[in-house]
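Justification of resources, computational component.

The compute hours requested in this renewal are based largely on the per-chain cost of generating structure records like the one below. Each record pairs the submitted sequence with a full C-alpha cell output. That output is archived, and it is also reused by downstream analysis tasks.
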Amino acid sequence: MNWDDAAAESAERLVGPAADREDQAVEAALRPRDLGEFIGQERVRQQLDLVLRAARARGGTADHVLLSGAPGLGKTTLSMIIAAEMGVPIRITSGPAIQHAGDLAAILSSLTEGEVLFLDELHRMSRPAEEMLYMAMEDFRVDVVVGKGPGATAIPLELPPFTLVGATTRAGLLPPPLRDRFGFTGHMEFYAPAELERVIHRSAGLLDVTIDTAGAAEIAGRSRGTPRIANRLLRRVRDYAQVRADGVVTREVAAKALEVYEVDGRGLDRLDRAVLQALLKLFGGGPVGLSTLAVAVGEERETVEEVAEPFLVREGLLARTPRGRVATPAAWAHLGLVPPQGTAGAGTSGDGSGQSGLFDS
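The structure output for this chain reads:
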C-alpha cells in the first residue's frame, strides 16, 4: 500500500484528515470568504494580510505563497481567500494531475494576468514539470520544446504575471530551489480546542444546527485539532440529534453520538485503539516492530504508519524508538490498563539507552 492507498483508507474514517466528496461539498458551503471570517492560524493570517494589502496598494500581483501543514487545516480555503482578496479568478489543480511538463505549460499559458494558480500536493508533481515551474515563477515564461532529437526547438512563451499558491503536507520533500522561489511561506498549525469551538459554532449556524457551548466543546475535544474533522463530527452529531434526540446538540447528545461512531473522548477511533491495544496487551507496551504491529491489527504496514501513528505520536501515546514502537504511560492510562513492572518508559529504546524515537524498525 502506498501513500495514495493510505490516504484513501484515512478518508473512510470519521476522524481521517482526508476529504471525501461529501466533505468537499460541505466545505464549499462552510468556507470563509475573506481573512476576516477565517478562524485560527492567527500568525499566518496576519502575515498574509500584510502581503496582500501591500500587493493591492502597489497595484501589482501578490508574491507566490507556499502553505504547508497537515490535511484539513485550511490550505485550500486560504488559497481561495487570496484570490478573493486580490479580486482575481483562481485555477485549481494538483501535483499528481501534472505528470508532464506539457500539462503544466497548457495550464500556465491559459492563465490571465494576476490570476491565482492553486497547486495542491505540490510535493507530488513530476520532476520535468517542477523544473519548468522554476522559470515560470521567476521570469514568467516557459520554454516549450517542439520536436525530438537534434531537430527539437525550444520556443519561449511569455506568461502574464500570476500568483502561485502551493500547498503541501510534506514540505521537507520540496527541493530547495522550489521553496526559495516562494515570496511567502506559511506553516499551518493544529487548532486549539477554543478555536475549534468557534469553527463549530460558525458551521452550526450555517447548517442550521442548534448547539450549546458544552456540545461544541465536546465535539472540539474529539476533533484532533483539525477543522475538517470538527465539521465532519458536527454533521454526524447533527444526524444523531435529529433521529434520537430533540435536534439540539448538547454535551450529552454529542458524547452519545460519537460513542456510536466509535470516537472516544480524546479523538481516537477504532483503528487508533486497535493499535494501542495490540501494543499494550499483546506486546506488553513494546518495543515492537512496525510490521509485527501491523499484522497484529490486521492492517497494512503503511496504513498503521501513515494513518494511525501520526496522531498517536502527537498525543504522546506512542513513541518511535530504534528498537520499535513503545507505548507511553499515557497510553496505559488512556485504556485503563496497568503497565507491567519493568516496562520501558516513553521515549526510550527499552535498553536504557534513552534514545528518542528518531529511527524506525
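Residues 1-11, 344-361 have pLDDT under 50 and may be disordered. Residues 193-260 form a domain with the Helicase, Ruva Protein; domain 3 fold (CATH 1.10.8.60).
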